[in-house]
Structure formats: C-alpha cells, structure tokens
Amino acid sequence: MEFKFSVNELFKQPIVELNQNLIPPGFSGDRRALWDTVNKVSEVINAMGEASAKAQGLSKPITTADRLRNSEHRLYLLVDQQANSGKGAVTGMLKTGSKGLYVFDREGQHYQVSPPCVLDFYVHDTRQRTGLGKRLFEHMLQKEGIEPVKMAIDRPSEKLLGFLNKHYGLHSPVKQMNNYVVYDGFFPKASDNN
Ligand code: ACO
Questions:
Q1: Into how many domains does the chain fold?
Q2: What pLDDT is stored for residue 102 in this prediction?
Q3: How many angstroms does the Cα of residue 9 sit away from the middle of ligand 1?
Q4: For a Cys staple, 123 with which of 55, 92, 94, 155, CB 3.0–4.6 Å?
C-alpha cells in the first residue's frame, strides 16, 4: 500500500514494531516532527486495518490507530523499501497481544489462560502467496520468543489456517466457542502439573 508521503522516511527498517505510543523505532525530532510522524503512522495503521477487514469480509476494522493506542498490543508492519519509486510501500501487517481466555481441549477439559494471540494478519492483496506473510510471522515469533502452537488465533480465515498448516504443520484446529482457534500442542500436558 502506497501513501502520498515517504514510507521510507517514516519507517527505517523493513519490519517495524509499533505499540501504543505509535512512535516508529529510530524516531528523532522535535514535538512538531513527533506530531507529524504519529499522524502518518495513524494513517498507515488505519489504511492497513481497513484493507485487512475488507479482505476478511468484516464490516469494521479490528485494527485502528485508536485501538492500538488504547491497548498493549504489538503491531508489526512489513515495508517494501524499493516500491513506489523509492518512497516505499507497506505490504503487510500483523497484530499480536495477550488475551484472557477460557479454552477447551478435545476432551472438554477447560483451562483459563492468557496466551499470546494472533489478532489481525494481512498481506496486501497484490502480494499474497509470495512468502511475505511467512517473513513477517517469523519475525514476530523470533521477537516474541514464542512457538506458533502456543498461540491462540482470533477468528482465523481459511487462508490463515492454510498458512499455519503449510508453514508450521498445524492441522486439525480445536475451535473454541469464543471464535479463537488453538492446536493440540497448545494445552499444558498433564505431566506439566507435577
Ligand atoms: N487461499 C488459500 N490459502 C492461502 C491463500 C489463498 N488465497 N493465500 C495464502 N494462503 C496460505 C496457503 O497455505 C499458502 O501456501 P500455498 O500458496 O502453497 O497454497 C500460504 O498461505 C502462503 O504463505 P505466504 O506467502 O507466506 O502467506 P501470505 O503472504 O499470503 O500471508 C495471509 C498469509 C496473511 C493469511 C494472507 O494470505 C492474507 O492477508 N489473506 C487475507 C486476509 C486474511 O485472511 N488474514 C487472516 C485473517 S485471521 C486473523 O488475522 C487472526
């Protein structure tokens, strides 16, 4: 996704991590520059959030700048620094965060947990199935020090279920009443309690 301003001036790395302050890593400048930067970051987040919602057939975006500001979520943005005649383009977005959940295993045993969750994941429509999603997801796993099987996935689309199966061998999702999905290795083993 392209913007009228330079994405490369805003985001200095190919993958940037944002949190509630909406300040990109490496920012330096005065108050006015900060205000301008946060406005541009908000525009990027809102546009990517809208596009993600559209791609998932949702009536409202899950991700907006306001919602990020009022959360402890992390938002990873993938940047193609060569695109748009060197101004750069944002090609992917992945939002994670912990949620307090009740989850049931296949036997009906329930657990109260606060796992890291995949909350919103989107690769630009023109770039899907070219490995960008894997790149972004791998970066997040490494930064958060987590295995995919230990994450809960919020309302996964068929594409995301396919993605997790293809890249991480996750299959036979255990679907929850709260619309989250987990996989068999998610649950603590009985021996973990000893
Ligand atoms: N149909 C079926 N499977 C797909 C599709 C598709 N159109 N697109 C991606 N996949 C899965 C497949 O397993 C595919 O492997 P294959 O091409 O060999 O079949 C694999 O993902 C490709 O891996 P990447 O190229 O690394 O993934 P991509 O860059 O496409 O990113 C993503 C995956 C984020 C799911 C992307 O396809 C996308 O944005 N889809 C639309 C929005 C969406 O559904 N997001 C997830 C919503 S649920 C949530 O966010 C919690």
A1: 1
A2: 96
A3: 29
A4: 92
Pocket test residue of 93, 95, 128, 170 for ligand 1, highest count of atoms within 8 A of CB:
128
- Range 128-134 average pLDDT: 98
Q: How far apart are CA 108 and CA 44, in angstroms?
A: 42
Indicate whether 138 belongs to any domain.
Answer: yes
Query: Measured at the alpha carbon of residue 134, what is the angle toward residues 131 and 140, in degrees to the nearest 5?
Result: 145
Angstrom distance (rounded) from CA 158 to CA 102? 23
Where in the sequence is the domain holding 19, given as residue range(s)? 7-193
Distance 36 CA to ligand 1 centre (A): 33
Is 81 part of a structural domain of the chain? yes
Ligand 1 lining (C-beta closer than 6 Å): 55-56, 118, 120-123, 128-134, 153-157, 159-160, 162-163, 166
Contact in structure between 177 and 103 (CB atoms under 8 Å): no
* pLDDT at residue 177 greater than cutoff 80: yes
Token pair recorded at residue 107? 């036997």
| Residue 2 falls inside a structural domain | no
Strand partners, 18: 75
Place of tokens 């993605």: 163
We report the CATH number of the domain holding residue 131 as 3.40.630.30
Inform me whether the pLDDT recorded for 147 exceeds 50: yes
pLDDT for 189 = 73
Q: Check whether 191 has a pLDDT greater than 60.
A: no
User: Would 145 be classed as within a structural domain?
Assistant: yes
Interface confidence (ipTM) of the complex: 0.98
Give 170 Cα–ligand 1 centroid separation in angstroms. Answer: 14
